[in-house]
Amino acid sequence: ADQWRASAFGYTGDPNARTPVIDALAAQSVDFRTAVSVCPVCTPYRAALMTGRYPVSTGMFLNDLYLPDGEVCLAESLQAAGYATGYIGKWHLDGHGRSAFIPPARRQGFDYWKAAECDHNYPKSHYYEGDSPERRNWEGYDAYAQTDDARRYIAAHANGDRPFFLTVSYGTPHFPHGTAPDEFKVLLPPESIRFPPNVPAEKIDDKLRREAQGYYAHGMALDRCVGRLLDALRESGIERDTILVFTSDHGEMMGSHGCPACQKQVPWDESILVPFLLRYPALHGAQGRIVRTPIVTPDILPTLLSLAGVPVPPSVEGEDVSALVRGGGPEDRAVLFMNVAPFDNFSKGREYRGVRTARHSYVRAIDGPWLLYDTAADPHQLRNLADDPAAADLRKELNAKLQAALKRVGDEFKPKAHYLAHHGYRVMANGA
């Protein structure tokens, strides 16, 4: 999903969420409650997902960039191991224009293709199919049509002589929120929406309520889609032996900490934390469990390849955390997240680097410590301890973990102008 924050589900306690299918899926899955988007905006996240590498290593730290062909991607590794590979939905890694045709040579290892670079006109979004440069449109609300296509793919490949890897990349609940199906919007009148305590009362106006209504309604529609995908796995008789992941690229502030609706990129949990459910009944049975040990986007590729018994490319910088799926692994770790070159005035224009542990979130700006939260005692991140003398030892400990993480990926944490100049990028007002 695109822009679905970790907290906006029934199983995580959001009183506005109507997600019964995903809630049930969480109860059957290894539920990673501290899953961190390495750079909480679309293209940087997607590049890290596909490569297992950090934005400063790939240069993919802005929207609308082209993922270099030299990067070794997830689908390429699985393809080399004999997998059929398929991609349906939003891609946002090609950098040749949001409506441009993406030829097979630029698809990073995916064979089956019904995708578009980027289109948020959900009632009439476009896609390209196979090798044809003919622009097509999904029929009706695109998530429903994409789900139908994914069901057909599953049915066609479930009992073939090759394993398959399918990615279904939905555009919602990313804005515009007003295009969510009316049948779900009526279930959540704007005046009934309850906001968390980190949304300032003066920011809760009619516009914010309408945005939130559409956001949750898009989520309800996707919950239905996930149910239909689960049905397809069951009907095909492969649900026990299929690794199923449900996740999102980044979160959504929706007024938290005074940010407007539709904002991301910032370092608070509403932006950086995403859902991450991994169901693999053949390995962990039907009983799910909650894991609070953090994972971050580059960890996903090596973990999935390990679970599939496929070699991990040497270029990968993320860590294989499959031990956590198997019931072992560390109780805690500090994972690195960042915004290398904020745009559209997101992040209040501040570059940052941060580490997230199971309990703490620590963020540095160029000029020094910015944020420090004890999320066990302060889950809504209302008390910033960055300047608190009583937290000096904790700040020192987390800063050391941050510096170690930066050293491991070779990130010197310089101002964004350094990285823009190094890669020859010119950023326009819309972030392209």
How would you describe this structure in keywords?
432 residues, alpha/beta, 13 helices, 29% helix
Structure explained in plain terms:
By secondary structure, the protein is of the alpha/beta class. It is 29% helix and 16% strand. It contains 13 helices and 16 strands. Helix 5 (142-157) packs parallel to helix 7. The relative contact order is 0.16.
Map the helices and strands.
Elements (H helix, E strand, L loop, with lengths): L19 H8 L2 E3 L2 E2 L5 H10 L3 H4 L15 H7 L3 E7 L21 E5 L9 E4 L6 E2 L4 H16 L6 E6 L12 H4 L20 H30 L8 E4 L21 H4 E2 L1 E4 L1 H4 L4 E3 L3 E2 L3 H9 L13 H5 L8 E5 L12 E5 L3 E6 L2 E7 L17 H18 L6 H8 L9
Parallel strand pairs: 1-11, 2-12, 3-4, 3-7
Antiparallel strand pairs: 1-10, 2-9, 4-5, 5-6, 8-10, 13-14, 14-15, 15-16
Helix pairs in contact: 5-7
- The assembly state of the depicted protein chains is single chain
Task: Return the structural class.
Answer: alpha/beta
Mean pLDDT: 96
Query: Which sequence of SSEs, written as H and E, runs from N to C?
Result: HEEHHHEEEEHEHHEHEEHEEHHEEEEHH
Please bin the fraction of helical residues.
25-40%
How would you summarize this macromolecular structure in one to three sentences?
With 432 residues, the chain is α/β, with parallel strands linked by helices. The protein is built from 13 helices and 16 strands.
